[in-house]
Specification:
With 691 residues, the protein is α/β, with parallel strands linked by helices. The longest helix has 23 residues, at 307-329. The chain is elongated and about 90 Å long.
Length: 691
Amino acid sequence: MTTHPVTAPATDLDQLCINTLRFLAVDAIQKANSGHPGMPMGAAAMAYQLWTRFLKHNPADPAWFDRDRFVLSAGHGSMLLYSLLHLTGYDLPLEEIKRFRQWGSRTPGHPERGLTPGVEVSTGPLGQGFGNAVGMAMAEAHLAARFNRPGYRLIDHYSYLIAGDGDLMEGVVSEAASLAGHLRLGKLICLYDDNRITLAASTSLSFSEDRAARFASFGWQVLTVADGNDLAALADALEEARAESGRPSLIMVRTRIGFGSPGKQDSFEAHGSPLGADEVLRSKERLGWPAEPQFLIPAAALEHFRQALERGGAAQREWEALRARYAADYPELAAELALALSGELPAGWLEALPEFPADEKGMATRAASGKVLNALAARLPQLFGGSADLNPSTVTALAGKGDFQSEQWQPEDRQGAVGGEWGAGGANVHFGVREHGMAAILNGMAAHGGTIPFGATFLTFSDYLRPALRLAALSGLKVVHVFTHDSIALGEDGPTHQPVEHLASLRAIPRLIVLRPCDANESAFAWRVALSANDRPVALVLSRQALPTLDRERYGAAEGVLRGGYVLADFEGEGPRLILIATGSEVALALRARLGLQEEGLAVRVVSLPSWELFEEQPAEYREAVLPREVPLRLAIEAGSPQGWHRYVGDAGAVLGVEGYGASAPGDRVLEEYGFTLENVRRLALRLTGG
């Protein structure tokens, strides 16, 4: 561990700029006078040094691809970021700074991607931004390995983040940091705002571990800066971090929360609430800042900050010229890169989707998904992902597409490696048993751009990654989650591994598309949905057990998946008296039950409803045609919690679901004990119809 001691004071101009940054944020926080603002006074100098000397970005074009990525993982300090964005010339007017935390402003309490220019990811729950930055660094390394050529470092940028004590306490950070160290992500640099204060207390009450030793054990380079106001020491540390290509770097910067505040420096009160009008005045006096006017931005300071526009524009123009020369020398690679950066899919990719013949024995939808994924991988080199140590179970390995690893790591035992390239160009990521870290990393990959990230685990473990999945939906990120072992039918592993409430839980997340296909062909169309959804995440929910591949000459076309629900098998005669609605593995049960009920003279329609979200987006006329109001007798069948199903069955209908937890026994026996049998479906159907 290298320590950078106090070596030199800031220049007068530097000090002017730092205080401008401090008090622009302080004035905005005081005007809002609410919430959990995370006073940025102590971190201002390190943010200033990074943004004005090291960060490669162009405020005139926040989306320039080869920009350095910056993540404020300690998102409660959002006014620090907003102040930097305004001062360096992003499209964030001073009026928006004055409207901090107000309705309709572009300066919300925590940074939100897509709302504020220059904000890379939505950070709020602590630790998420750290995981996002790891994902960004992984995406950069992967794309650099795929596209850079001698003399053409076209993909060449760093991922920086600022994290605080709260971030480092969160478990997701340990998961992500451990993987980052294993992968030797040398272009990942974390500035740790080591102020030793949390919202409610000093860290001495809860956080006494040796953080430097922990990160060193993960394989990180650990540097320290003794005084967070020492620009020279900060510069030395950042230079050393940038020079280290074989390890990510943690720079532990000792800061003082509420720096300059006579009454609240080093106090947790500066973390959880505004300073107060009197304390703001005293702080300004102590640091030699005019009491009035509020939101003072001296011309010299603004001129210095706005040099970022000139530097960024020049850097971008240089990059564009390099890209033009690259296109001349490597036209095919350049075209592939352009497509990847556009986020569009190549022409003809739909032709890669396999079509599965009817087969009563069939296959598990997880197996069908694996076949679809590998067929698509031949056409979509953007696919980049893996599982949380479950490739054999989730069937998500991309055969022959290589293993994403550091070339510095050459273990003799490579059990479980997919094969092909061993290095940053490999498309298969081994996330290890790190579900939460995996999901946060996937969000970072998606926010970075250039890849289509996917991750996989068992459905019951969606609980472990839910915070990151929710943020993907909130942020509109294109991430595909593959969840297998989707019901109590998985069997002997028992109730700890058998999902019950998880489908309802996922469906409760706004803007998340949940798809539970009933057979191999529905699985293919589910992947079509997932890859076409550019502005939201998708969860594919797949079976462990084999399901019949339906004969589409007899039943509705699997293309109905694109509309979320469709008539799979219809009545014979004047009209149905009963509609059976099912998803996933229970669709086959509904079809078998229909045959028996029709033999008893009951007209029955079967509706496959793999995605509530897509179905609700359809025109009312379509939804009415599938589930006509004139047929109120409906039975929903799904091996999960009944919660939510009454929107489709109404007061006159019923739901066959799972009200408790599962049990340890063979899957068929568990289903039988929970009533997922032909006889029980018949009994419930006849009860509804009075038969």
